[in-house]
Specification:
The chain is an all-alpha fold and 193 residues long. The protein has 2 domains: 103 residues, Tetracycline Repressor, domain 2 (Orthogonal Bundle), CATH 1.10.357.10; 69 residues. The protein has 9 helices and no strands. Helix 1 packs across helix 3. The chain is elongated and about 75 Å long. Keywords: DNA-binding. It comes from Mycolicibacterium conceptionense. This is TetR family transcriptional regulator. Pfam families: TetR_N.
Length: 193
C-alpha cells in the first residue's frame, strides 16, 4: 500500500528580507511601467510578487517611497548592466522600463526628481561629456538636451513619424538619425550651429 502524495502547494513566495525586497521591486517596476503608480495598488504588487502586502509596507513605507525605491533600483540595475557583459537588447529593455516608470510616475504627479536620488545613466554621460566643454553649464545643458531627445523619440515616435511625414523611414534609419543628432548635441559649439 502506498501513501498518497499530498497535493502540490502553490509555488511559495519569496522568503527573507532580500528575496522579499527583490521580488517587490521587480513586480512594482513591471506594474508601474505597464500602468503607472497611480493605477497600481500595493495589493497588485503583493499579488504579482507573491509577497504579503504588509511586508511591502514594512520594507518600503509609503507608496511614494516605493516609487523612489523602484527608480533607484532601475538606475542601479542599468549601471550594473552597462558595466557588465550583456547584450544591447538587455540594456535597451532595462532603459525602456526605467523610462516608462519615470514617465508614468511624472504623469501621475510623483516628484521623481526628489524620489530618485541617484542618476547613474545621466552621471555616466556627464562624466563622458563635461570634459569636452569649457563651460560646465553648457555641457550639462547638452546632456539634458540629448536625454530629452532620446525620451522624446521613445515616447512620441508614432506621433513624430506621422506629424513629420516619416512613416516610410525604417526604425534603423530613425535610430541612426537620432543617434547622430545626440552625438552632435554632445559636442561643444553644437548649440551655436
Amino acid at each position: 500500500m502506498t501513501t498518497p502524495t499530498p497535493p502540490a502547494k502553490a509555488s511559495a513566495g519569496p522568503v527573507g528580507k532580500d528575496e522579499v525586497v527583490a521580488a517587490t521591486l521587480s513586480a512594482a517596476a513591471e506594474l508601474f511601467a505597464e500602468r503607472g503608480p497611480a493605477a497600481t495598488s500595493i495589493r497588485d504588487i503583493a499579488t504579482r510578487s507573491k509577497v504579503n502586502h504588509g511586508l511591502i509596507y514594512r520594507h518600503f513605507g509609503t507608496k511614494e517611497q516605493l516609487v523612489g525605491a523602484v527608480l533607484e533600483h532601475l538606475g542601479g540595475r542599468l549601471t550594473a548592466l552597462l558595466d557588465g557583459e550583456v547584450s544591447d537588447g538587455e540594456i535597451e529593455q532595462n532603459m525602456d522600463q526605467h523610462m516608462r516608470v519615470m514617465a508614468r510616475a511624472l504623469l501621475d504627479g510623483y516628484p521623481i526628481g526628489e524620489l530618485q536620488t541617484r542618476f547613474p545613466g545621466v552621471n555616466r554621460l556627464l562624466d563622458e561629456v563635461l570634459p569636452r566643454f569649457e563651460d560646465e553649464r553648457n555641457g550639462r545643458l547638452a546632456v539634458a538636451n540629448a536625454v530629452a531627445l532620446q525620451l522624446g523619440w521613445r515616447f512620441f515616435e508614432p506621433f513624430l513619424r506621422s506629424a513629420a511625414g516619416l512613416a516610410s523611414i525604417s526604425d534603423d534609419e530613425v535610430r541612426t538619425a537620432a543617434g547622430a543628432e545626440i552625438a552632435r548635441i554632445l559636442q561643444p559649439g553644437a548649440a551655436a550651429d
